[in-house]
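Self-study notes.
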Amino acid sequence: MRDSPRLFMDPQAYPPLQPDMVVRLEPDRAHYLGNVLRLSAGARVVVFNARDGEWSAGIEALRRDRGEIRLTRMERAPQATAGPALFFAPLKRDATEMVIRMGTELGVSCFQPVFTERTNTHRLNEARLGAIAREASEQCERLDVPDIRPPCPMADVIAHYPSDMRLFVALERLDAAADPDGIPAARPGDGLLIGPEGGFSAREQEFLRGQPFTRVLSLGPLVLRADTAAAAGLALMGAGLRRRAVSGL
């Protein structure tokens, strides 16, 4: 089943998945299988969500924007991705979409767009970003799709941030070089905050440094694009989470 197409089944739109259950496909899903992938009845697919896990299935019928699949068996039990939350200032369209795609592939549990003093993009197509997160989850073989929350001011995020979780703040032009050992014990639920194009203002940096739960994170001496900084920071945090899992802490 490794090479079979993967389809996310929204648990809010479908009942719990069971063996031999027939599922009617949404029009866009049927169109994708039939017109994009050129599949037909009898082909194998994989469906998944965080509630039901991953299931093998076969196409029963497929025509234009209509189709049905029959579930066979569970291949993987439900498992939520234990990754960090990503807080980021909205960027230009392509860059924001790249952040969502790469963040999903790197295990982000949820995305929270935040408005900062230098944020120059204030309108987001949340439906489009949700579709990108879904497609990335299908491609990278995770079992869930990360949440994308409505944008809010950075001050609101800080005011309501859980005091028992850490928020790693990526700042540019730090003297310390990027060091994976700088976050040896990143925990599920910790967050990463990435600033806008142009970085955080001096006032914002002072404000962030003064919070008891924030940790300054250096990504090296070079100034990175905001979308590159998100990927680099998430890679470091992912390494910390994996070390923590291996050590059993």
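Second protein, same conventions, sequence then structure:
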Amino acid sequence: MRGLALLAMASYHFSWDLEFFGYLPPGTAETGVLKIYARCIASTFLFLVGIGLVLAHRNGIRWTSFGKRFAQIAASAFAISVATYLAMGAGWIFFGILHAIALMSLLGLAFIRLPVVVTLGAAIATLILPFYARSAVFDAPYFWWLGLSETIPRSNDYVPVFPWFAAVLFGIASARLALRFGLWQKLAAWPSGPKLLSLAGRHSLVFYLVHQPVLIALVYLATLVVAPPPPDRAAAYDRSCQQSCTAGNNDAGFCQRFCGCTLEKLQTRNILEPLQSGAIIAAQDERVLKLARECTIASQ
């Protein structure tokens, strides 16, 4: 199953790479079906983390092996943060899937021997807490890992504790129930599947670290053969804006007027391109905030 999740992750990252090099419109990988696809992949990885914790430590925590694995993942997460900060700037990965796996593996140890009902209750609480506990208090960068800030920080991979730790807890609960009812013995009788997928699953961290540079290199080579079309920034902005606006339960007519108004002002002020490239962050740039307020009033 981990091998299939890795394959799915690589396919999503390939779509992100196609967007990055201009073969897909800006925002394609972060909206619609692909956004849901990415969340399903992340949930699957974290669910498997929970299962793995139970299977590895059901007879007692093996601190030596856990510590070694934790150190490898934490070091890889740190390397990803440094590399993306240097390469991406505003969209750098400060708490992505590897950071989440490292911290949530540590937190998950506290639940592997607790009653299943307690773990399920904690999972549900973790899921619903962001709907009720968001506060400007958590907008400070050193709280971003919690996932309770009112302003969602910009990042190309953001997997905070709330609500994502719920997937780990559901994995722990599921593994405990499977042990109780003997499901693992039945699953062990199933065929193992393709060897390449099994190999990738056994070396998932190496696969994660290597696959994206390889994909980026392949897409870059493709640009030397078939150049991507010039981007239509206005159309991409309008599509992304209207999706975000209607997702906030706003009237379609209002969203059309608002997005048209903000697009015109962004183009007039020559800040559309830096906004889309991540050079400026909408929630932190007074020019963008001011024109958004003006267009909100004008679009009523």
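Instructor comment on the second fold: The CA atoms of residues 13 and 143 lie 27 Å apart.
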